[in-house]
What we know:
This is Galactan endo-beta-1,3-galactanase. This protein is mainly beta. The chain has one helix at 36-42, and strands at 3-14, 43-45, 57-59, 64-66, 71-78, 85-87, 90-92, 96-98, 101-103, 115-124, 133-138, 145-150, 156-162, 168-174, 182-190, 196-202, 205-212, 220-221. The protein is globular and about 50 Å long. The chain binds 2-acetamido-2-deoxy-beta-D-glucopyranose (3 copies).
Amino acid sequence: xxxxxxxxxxxxxxxxxxxxxxxxxxxxxxxxxxxxxxxxxxxxxxxxxxxxxxxxxxxxxxxxxxxxxxxxxxxxxxxxxxxxxxxxxxxxxxxxxxxxxxxxxxxxxxxxxxxxxxxxxxxxxxxxxxxxxxxxxxxxxxxxxxxxxxxxxxxxxxxxxxxxxxxxxxxxxxxxxxxxxxxxxxxxxxxxxxxxxxxxxxxxxxxxxxxxxxxxxxxxxx
Length: 222
Ligand SMILES: *[C@@H]1O[C@H](CO)[C@@H](O)[C@H](O)[C@H]1NC(C)=O
Ligand SMILES: *[C@@H]1O[C@H](CO)[C@@H](O)[C@H](O)[C@H]1NC(C)=O
Ligand SMILES: *[C@@H]1O[C@H](CO)[C@@H](O)[C@H](O)[C@H]1NC(C)=O
């Protein structure tokens, strides 16, 4: 395949943050993809650490486009002649350019009832070989990682929380009508002063709650 539309996201709106239930505060408004100026207030292109991660795609600003209707479109494109990525001591051939964006803000669940709601509307392909994702990952070390939604080209949508690389709660469910937008909501809360609870919903239906060990006080990238 020459080119694969990879993921469209609209209305990334977040989140209360603060210990007090009354102190709900929107950190990234649902207008943040309306214009370049709105985007630049809250987002940067690529991954926080650069253009490469652990797959066959290299992120490029050219593959992330504001469509002018409040939608961000991320598109993968087949390329030849890119230099390989290196990840975990491995050389990974790069076959695609694709798009990623990350929030300028870091998210740190504070002790004492703190938390965030991460919400957005996504239209994601489930074509084989693609891997669109809406996820949180550690700023320092690793984990925390919460895959608030990822589509691994299987036709399903996955919701995952990692305690370690081998201790992970991973839930795959059927992904209805990939051609339509679906609303993902991920409610991340201090559970017991140490661990966080993560309640995943799709289109208003709760999928399940997972727990991340020791995520309280650990800043995360979106
Ligand atoms: C966008 O956010 C505003 C303020 O929180 C809210 O009133 C509005 O309903 C939201 N729009 C959509 C389409 O979610
Ligand atoms: C996270 O927030 C807590 C306060 O809730 C603070 O004590 C801690 O230093 C923060 N961690 C980082 C790495 O910013
Ligand atoms: C991760 O750690 C939390 C807190 O200890 C625990 O509740 C959860 O079951 C663990 N996840 C897995 C997959 O073991």
